[in-house]
Fold this protein.
Amino acid sequence: MNTQELKHIIEAVLFAAESPLSMNQLTGLFQADNAPEPSTIKQALTMIQEDCADRSIELKEVGSGYRFQVKQDYAQWVAKLWEERPARYSRATLETLALIAYRQPITRGEIEDVRGVSVSSQIIKSLIERDWIKVVGHRDVPGKPALYATTREFLDYFNLKSLDELPSLAELRDIDAINAELELVMPEDRQPADVEADDQTGIAGEDSFATDSPELTATEEIDEPLSAEN
Amino acid sequence: MNTQELKHIIEAVLFAAESPLSMNQLTGLFQADNAPEPSTIKQALTMIQEDCADRSIELKEVGSGYRFQVKQDYAQWVAKLWEERPARYSRATLETLALIAYRQPITRGEIEDVRGVSVSSQIIKSLIERDWIKVVGHRDVPGKPALYATTREFLDYFNLKSLDELPSLAELRDIDAINAELELVMPEDRQPADVEADDQTGIAGEDSFATDSPELTATEEIDEPLSAEN
Amino acid sequence: MPFAIVQGTAVMVLPKDLYIPPDALEVFLAETFEGPLDLLLYLIRRQNLDILDLPIAEITRQYMEYVEVMMDLQLELAAEYLVMAAMLAEIKSRMLLPQPKRFDEEEGDPRAELVRRLQEYERYKQAAEDINTLPRVGRDVFPTDVARPDLKVVRLPPRVELDDMLTAFREVLQRAAMYEHHHIQTEPLSVRERMSIVLSTIKRDQFTDFSDLFNIEEGRSGVVVTLLALLELLKQSLIELIQTDAYGPIHVKVADTAEHGTAE
């Protein structure tokens, strides 16, 4: 099979697929003893991507794999055909989703701690039904609360390849550090407890960033963040 | 709007549409006072059709309008996306196969005697359909039960030149003895439950090219073997 | 037209004896709050206050005004608003106390925890707004939907590793060992295999020449295996050996009693 033929096959399959296709799925199309190298497939994908330069569609890699999609320049034309208005999500839903996306794995109680209000079961339920979040374990504390994480479908829906691509979180400023400057007090005056709390938040945010596939690592991490926090 | 831009818009809309688009729908995309002539749209459609010559999709006019479709030449590749691979054979099937391999020619009743439980016709049928076993005769007892033996295809599948290459019973027992010793040394390491779980994961890993998430396949594995057989 | 919408509840009628702080109405009309932190952030941002240098007395006063309005409107006020009110009151009182220098290090700024929570909430509030502006399938992103050609979908058989089968077999052996009368005999596999081959070769209604079953090229051991296989088949009454004359040719056929020969 030459590269041109391989390119055509991959193009055909990506067009026919109902959802994004992973490298595994693409490799799986071929007999094990005759499968092209992943690097060859990758090369074909790059060629397809280049072919799209002068077209109204693009080949995009999202969370669960590759898919063809209409370039955003043409989205306005396509939207005219769409009868259904895209759903709007409440602030409560979006804030809950944001906390799960940036701080996963996280329990409902931890979400409530940050938001300062209770999170309705309905919100969690609807996010699970949309396949945007899932339970990846349970925290080892009384009541064994469920730990939530985002899914590949969440990434697909928001056109993201990995959590890395989420907008970065705002920096936290430290009140004691500022006070220290203002009052010209020795820097050692920073409260150990506060410093630690701030650091942890920072770490939690960045940690969940670093993992491409929260599903895989989350189960291992179940016990870790807890012991770190308590 | 030049022809190139018009072509791009029509291409984008046709790619995203869930069903064929009629000339009316295509014209309706544009402001009434600024809509291109139907002949211009038609021209753009012809250009798109020509662009497809060297690609794996084609623009087809069907009853209700125009749509993109994967060329029939690539049907076999697209079909692979929908191929179902039953998760795995049940233990009962594997035991039956093993007994036929080691004790051939053997009747179903004899297999049942050794296994201590009955062997469903479905198991025998699935192994015959797979061309791994065949009837080589009938035993001269009431009911004249069929005698089963393994086939050349069975040897080919497992990459064996002859049955001799299977470990002998003595060797198998040695492995058991070695395992037993290991258990004495490190009982916590080789819990029977773990061994089974390991085996399953091994199989699941190879079978599940279509599914990326190991968690998902693991749960399916538990229920699948039965349904795969029935 | 509802008079105001507070926490998703439409307020149609104003209580008569209600005093409403000047800007409160505007707030209720402008938006609903996602809790006490959200309300506090609103008050802070509206007045361009530095979150790190909160005028706690003033903020507490404003906060309490809004909470009272909500209570007067007999809205179902989430308990969290009252907890926050108590927290603000406590911080305010601690700010008023003279702070001996030596306690400073232990207690720090009484506002620190509140400020930390406000900042923490605000960054996720912002993150939620950011997520809301991400390109979204069905709004900004449209995956292609291309018709498929006619498909013939194949159902593939499961994959099996040799080890899976051996593991299964070992377990049968272990189970079978519990029944003494089910001892598994240990003919070499080559004999077993040869038995199957012989059975497949010979015919029911036609004699096969005994010597045709042997392949000289296999050498002595091959011949022995075939002979053992024939003897075992004979023992199991699966074949008949017929010799019409002494030293004459021996013929093999499937035992008469066995109905139907091979399946092939």
Notes: Residues 184-230 of chain A have pLDDT under 50 and may be disordered. Chain A touches chain C through 51 residues (CB under 8 Å).
